[in-house]
Amino acid sequence: MNKYLIRGVLICLLLLTVLCKSYAFEIFYPHEKKSTTDYSYGLFIGKARNSESITINNTKIFTASNGAFAHSVNLNDGENRIIIRSGYSTKVYTIYKKKKLPKAQSQIEEFDKKTVLVKNDNSPLRNAPEDIGFNIISYLFKDTRIIINGSKDAYYRVFLGKDKIAWILKSDINLTSEPDELPASFINTESKKYKNAAIQTISFTKNLPYTIEDGEKEILFKVYNPELSDSSIYTLNIQKPKKYYYNVSLQDGLYTFKVSEVPKTFEDTTIVIDAGHGGEQRGAVGCLGDEEKNINLKIALELQKILKQKGANIVMTRECDGTITLKERIKVAKENNADIYLSIHMNSIGNVPFKSLKHKGTGIYYFNRNSKELSEILEKTITKVAGTKKNGVKTASFAVIRPASYVGVLIETAYMINPADTLIYRQADFARNAAEGIAAGLEEFICK
Question: How far are the Cα atoms of 138, 237, 310 from residue 220, in angstroms, in the given order?
Fold first, then answer.
């Protein structure tokens, strides 16, 4: 063959390869072409180029004007082969779905009552032997005396009275300790009122278990002394202001319950701004390859500027791309006596099929009753300023908003995996707009 003809063919092949590469779609999630999962659905997100038509297992996929697309594939047990095609490229993914085995139902092991001590501070006392945030009824302190009389899986059953039981992790109990046999006795109770807070104390000769019920008009703080009798319950009926948070401390049998009113000016308010994820924790990935941690930080830094200008005392959990644990984030809030905690995120989905109209816009999450009002206000103000849709106000057991010692909300500003939302959060002024919306919500909550 003529050497010039060979050279021409090679050049054409090279140009064709470059052109196909530049026009071919990209997949940003899943990260690997072969993976294993327990999920029933596999989410595929990516970017098409130059209006190329995308199919996933022969289903045509909608792409936004910027090329973003998202699609969930129903997975069967065993190996699933997913073929993604366009006019320029074909990519094959293999997802192995583990078969779910029926969970064996364990029985409660009964045994005689035994008095033991709690090993650690912040040990969750639960309504049921399950690791679900919503069944937590209090956080016990170290060296609290409790009675256990049964076990199930990783939990001991706690006897609080003839009509009340609870559960605690076995790892939170010190079985080697030998508390004395003398039951605790009640000493006294006192109350004090201040300008923006009320403090009530109840004192015993030893540390005892307690529960908290945050009702519509008052908080019920109950202390149990089952060693004394099966019906020995001491109750504090604590009135609360409309906007509030509370804190419980224990020292040598003395419980101190403090209810504080949320300040009414920015100048008197300490706000913790928590840019979700960071460092090694990338968070979700978007259709166009964006990493959640970076968008969260941009919004947080914009919000910091705005709120400082309004006179608020601002504390940041991070101001750069650093790794910080959930416990460290909560510690920052508590050490700085935060009044309000804002955790800023971008949304994604888990083991559910992607629905473009449902998984869209701004969602606000809270855990405690005291944070519901701020959540409802923020959904309204953020969507109005940032141009996102309302995705709802919901309760969720996220660690950073579980403490009741501040008003805590978690903001999912937009869905990274929704092609329509990418058109919004990719705009140059999105971070500023989202921050303006949050600031407007805070102003309405604090100052009005």
Answer: 12, 5, 36
Question: In 225-238, which positions are buried (b, 16+ CB within 10 angstroms) versus exposed (e)?
Answer: bbbeeeebbbebeb
Per residue in 377-398, pLDDT (tens digit) is 999 999 999 999 999 999 999 9
Going from N- to C-terminal start, the domains of the chain cover: 24-97, 109-174, 186-261, 266-447
- How deeply is 224 buried, as exposed, middle or buried, from its count of CB atoms within 10 A (0-12, 13-18, 19+)? buried
Tokens encoding 354: 């992607």
Nearest to 140 by CA among 278, 248, 20, 252: 248
Q: Is the dihedral of CA 346, 350, 354, 359 positive or negative?
A: negative
| Rounded distance between C-alpha atoms, residue 428 and residue 412, angstroms | 19
State the fold for domain 186-261: Immunoglobulin-like (2.60.40)
Task: Looking at the structure, give the CATH architecture of the domain made up of residues 109-174.
Answer: Roll (2.30)
Phi, psi of 152 (to 5 degrees): -150, 120
State whether residue 283 is helix, strand or coil. coil
Instruction: Please report where in the chains the tokens 């209006």 appear, as a residue.
Output: 51
Contact 236, 244 (CB under 8 A): no
In angstroms, the Cα distances linking 357 to 338, 418, 419, 427 are 36, 9, 11, 20
pLDDT tens for residues 292-312? 999 999 999 999 999 999 999
CA–CA gap between residue 433 and residue 427 (Å, rounded):
10
What are the tens digits of pLDDT across the range 262-287? 999 999 999 999 999 999 999 999 99
Which class in CATH covers the domain with range 24-97? mainly beta
Does 266-447 match 109-174 at the fold level? no
Residue bearing tokens 């969260």: 296
Element holding 246 (H helix, E strand): strand 244-251
C-alpha torsion sign, points 306, 418, 324, 257: positive
Burial of 98 (0-12, 13-18, 19+ CB in 10 A): exposed
Q: What is the CA radius of gyration of the chain?
A: 27
Is residue 77 packed enough to be buried (19+ CB in 10 Å), middle (13-18) or exposed (0-12)?
exposed
% of the chain exceeding 90 in pLDDT: 88
279's tokens: 């460092």
Task: Determine the CATH number of domain 266-447.
Answer: 3.40.630.40
Q: For residue 142, give both structure tokens.
A: 């170290």
Model pTM score: 0.92
